[in-house]
Amino acid sequence: MIEGRRRFRGFILEVDDEAVTIRLPDAPAGADPNHRLPLAMLADAKLVMSDTLMDMARKAQEENNPLDDDDIETETDEMPDDFDDEDQPGTDDDDKSSKEIH
């Protein structure tokens, strides 16, 4: 029990190694709506993915796309123009399972 409560419903504001800070929308008038909850005291949590969180994640990914990292080297192999995969072992048209990825 934290501050006389067993359940908290709110918006995550900050997370660190020791605690999570949430804003409670149902906080009484005049009371601080932000509560820091020690992770060691949490037994269960249900997180809801909202449109706002999805937009934030999308924006963060666009701004910090790991594929745009100059330290990452990408190699591509091009198949010769005369390459015919039917000539390759395991690509018999009767054996469709060899072409499927599961």
Summarize this entry quickly.
By secondary structure, the protein is an alpha+beta fold. It is 13% helix and 15% strand.
Write up what this structure looks like:
This is DUF2171 domain-containing protein. It comes from Devosia algicola. With 102 residues, this protein is of the alpha+beta class. The chain has a domain at 1-45. It has one helix spanning 51-63, and strands at residues 11-15, 19-23, 34-38. The protein has a three-stranded antiparallel sheet, with no helix packed on it. The chain is elongated and about 75 Å long.
Termini separation: 47 Å
The quaternary state of the protein chains shown equals single chain
- Globular, elongated, flat, extended or rod-shaped: what is the shape? elongated
Q: Write down the overall mean pLDDT.
A: 78
Q: Percent of residues in helical segments? A: 10-25%
Strand order of the largest sheet: 1-2-3
Strand content: 5-15%
Please tell me how large the radius of gyration is.
26 Å
DSSP strand count: 3
H/E series, N to C? Answer: EEEH
Number of helices: 1
Structural class assignment: alpha+beta
Low-confidence stretches: none
Q: Which features characterize this protein?
A:
alpha+beta; 102 residues; DUF2171 domain-containing protein
Topology:
Blueprint (H helix, E strand, L loop, with lengths): L10 E5 L3 E5 L10 E5 L12 H13 L39
Antiparallel strand pairs: 1-2, 2-3
Protein name: DUF2171 domain-containing protein
InterPro entries: RimP_C_sf
